[in-house]
Every structure is written in structure tokens, then in C-alpha cells.
Amino acid sequence: PTQQALQKIISELQILLNDPNASFAQVADKLKAYRDLRDKAEKELDAAQKKLEEILTPRQEVILVTMGYLK
Questions:
Q1: How far is residue 68's CA from residue 16's CA, in Å, rounded to a whole number?
Q2: 6 and 37 in contact (C-beta within 8 Å)?
Q3: Quick check: helix, strand or coil at residue 22?
């Protein structure tokens, strides 16, 4: 998922929260969609970080970990 997709869902959630006619089910469904998309993005990021770690030197890995780019 792209950052744009996450932003779109966040915008839709904000619209729902500002809508006095929005039902609990609508908000809950949109929140679930956001969480699902966020979880998918986190898994993709973890996989990309693992691939990157495979090609880094120990020095490069330390630098990226201490800068917060890798876990």
C-alpha cells in the first residue's frame, strides 16, 4: 500500500467522525480498513528491511539502525 492510500483512509475517517449521521458500523469498518492497510504496509517494510540487511556491511547496518531506518 502507498502512503497515499493510507492518507485517503485517514481523510475518510476524519470525514466520518465529523458527520453526525455516520453510524458506529461505518466508523468501525473504516478503522478496520485503515488498520489492515497499515499492518500490510508494516509487513512490506519489514520484508524490505530484511532484504536490505542482506546486502549491507556491518558498518552500514549499524549506521542505519542508529539512525532509526532499520530495527
A1: 34
A2: yes
A3: coil
Whether the predicted model's global pTM rises above the 0.70 cut: yes
Residue 49 CB burial class (10 angstroms; 0-12, 13-18, ≥19):
middle
Angstrom distance (rounded) from CA 56 to CA 69: 13
Note the pLDDT of residue 1. Answer: 77
Q: Give the whole-angstrom CA distance, residue 10 versus residue 29.
A: 12
The amino acid that residue 35 corresponds to is R
Average pLDDT, the chain: 95
Amino acid letter for position 29: D
d(CA 5, CA 30): 13
> Which pLDDT band holds residue 48 (cuts at 50, 70, 90)?
very high
